[in-house]
Amino acid sequence: MTSTTSDPSSGIDWAIERGMGALAEKMGIEWVEFTVERTVATMPVEGNTQPVGLLHGGAYVVLGESLGSMAANLYAGPGRLAVGVDINATHTRSATSGIVTGVCTPLHLGRTMTVHEIVVTDDQGQRCSTVRITNYIKDLPPS
Asked: I need a surface site. Which of 7, 16, 81, 142 has the fewest CB within 10 A?
């Protein structure tokens, strides 16, 4: 879905209107906070685990990419599109129950590139994964 919001500072309303995409919705990701400076979402561990009961490493990456890409698109503004060109994650702890929370902050906001860091913590506030995503911002073709 394409946003029709002309004021990108409306953050969470813009994100809800735009939608997260089918994968993020299937994984149960929910927005908590949404601004250019800080984007926060939660995701349940249940339903997103490996066979041994740990939150799947790919689930951390989906949460991170959802946060970082949406934050980059809010920053890009109307008539522009941010697309991921690089993502990496370092998992340092395993979540086995409850929810995890991703907090996304920009490391670089440029004219054609953004870099965001997403710190994912468990219910006890302990860091489980650190995700970094780089997005390229391009102009949309005239409609």
From this structure: 142
